[in-house]
Amino acid sequence: MKKVLLIFMSIILFGCSKDDTTSTEPIEQNLTVESNNVKTFEVVSVTVNNVELTNNTYQATFGNSEITLLKFDNNSLIFSVPEIEQGTYSLSLSLGTIDLNVTETQVSNTDEIIQNVFDNFSTDIGNLDNSDTFIANEITAAESYNTEVLALYNSLNDEQKRQTAMFYEANKEVFKNFKNDITSNLNGPTTLSRIPQSECFENYNLKKEFYSCTAENLGNSAIALKNSSKEFLQILALAGASAYLAPASFGLSAVGTFLGLGTAAYIYMTEVRPSFIQFKSSLKAFVFSNWILTQATFSVVADEFASESEASLNVTPDFRSMNSNDSGVSEETGYFINSLNTLNGYWNQLTALFGNTLNYQDTSENIGFDENTDQINITNISNTNVELESLDGQNVTFISVSGNDEDFNYDIEITKEGFSEVATKSASVIVEVDITGVWNINGSDSCSSTDGTTFTDEYSDQIMINENGTVTLNNDSNGNYITNSYSFVNNVLTIVTSYNDFFTPACDGIDYQTVNDNLTFTYEPSTDSFSGTTYTTANEVSGNGCERTGRTCNGTATLTR
User: Fold this and answer.
1) Which phi and psi angles does 80 have, rounded to 5°?
2) What's the pTM value of the predicted model, to 2 decimals?
3) 8 A C-beta contact, residue 4 and residue 10
4) PROSITE patterns, alphabetically (predicted)?
5) DSSP string, 106-157
6) What is the pLDDT of residue 544?
7) CA dist 64 to 70, 85, 92, Å?
8) Three-state SS for 430?
9) How far apart are CA 488 and CA 522, in angstroms?
């Protein structure tokens, strides 16, 4: 089986295909590389411009060597620089020609260079905070992966180990960049980048500034990890391995040069795995944080205010986690979102190694209004009969200029944690009236008795409205109340009383009727008076040779001072 695979892979890298030899004039500008300076054993990506890549492989000459370029994506081909002498060589294929300057990769001690990787892995893993359950689980998976890769390397013969070391040395730069990006600049709990995270803590106290700084840092690390992931996938592709293939399975199937190339790829992933765990942990903390101020801040704002009385606006700052539509929050969040999207294109191909990508969260939380740092501004009051008298933090006083209840709209803006949110709200300003004291009541009732007779009752009397929420009526039988209360809301006064109205002589031992009064009045500010309706009932009392008729009365009445 290995012989068959060896023949097949040799055809891919070194053979010629009739389909690939169609005669076309080479166009030099069709081919570009990131750098014309390359090393032996280096995996090189060639960008193909203005030409559609229709084949999976393309035959080429590299100096005197015949090589095969593998299609990696829609506009790039990859190949490994052969083990040749130092010099300038032309890469020539049907799609174009480009000159590359080759230097020889040097490795003085094969075992030492690879052993250092595994030793550094153990050190880096030991430096992680395994008290965090998320990190502890990632460490367990990483250690298992490291064991597999170490077993794969130890299964190689001396020549295969030499080739592995050569491939490792020639292509290590992009992986080192990611690792250095993490380990040298991660000095805060929530991010990592070329800009030390400590600067975010030292320079930015507000949520928007701090998390924007964090977003930029994570964006930088996402790009570094993307570059490493892309290189890893390219190396695996050249080695004929799937990204889902475990190191042990790869070792059973690969042979020759491909075994050394693929083993080097797995060693790279072992080397950066501790740094990836730190990145993933920091990314998780970031996307799970609620730090963006939302319109829900105004969802329970007060909508009724007493004229000339200070009241709380009840603004409740609401912060949510970020999502993929938040590019406009700041330049840095836009950069982070684009960087993460780019990384996820490769991460999704490496879920067997990295686990699933981290999704944005849909969470939010309320954070208290800080009277010392947060600011509220009110503008554009729509009703000219309403004025803003004072605003101190959440405490606001509106005035009804007309002296009447008034409805109005206004714009409210809150500034908190570097964010500013504006909403248009509707409200009412209510003119509160002190209605306690003695009022003159004048009314007319139409009554029907339980004996079938009807009568009209015209009356003038007084009623005392007390501060304790009760009333006192002149004809209340010395205040023998069963129930007694009033309410005054939105200029509507409602009085409900029930009392025992005593009489003599008693009727079969009962000497009272229960009288129920239900009065509803509407206040008129311009005249400082009330007008409304009355409803009164009294029960019938009857006995042996005696009867006290009951009654039901409906009427209208006014209250004046």
Assistant:
1) -105, 130
2) 0.72
3) no
4) PROKAR_LIPOPROTEIN
5) --S-HHHHHHHHHHHHHHHHHTS-TTSHHHHHHHHHHHHHHHHHHHHHHTS-
6) 83
7) 19, 11, 11
8) strand
9) 9
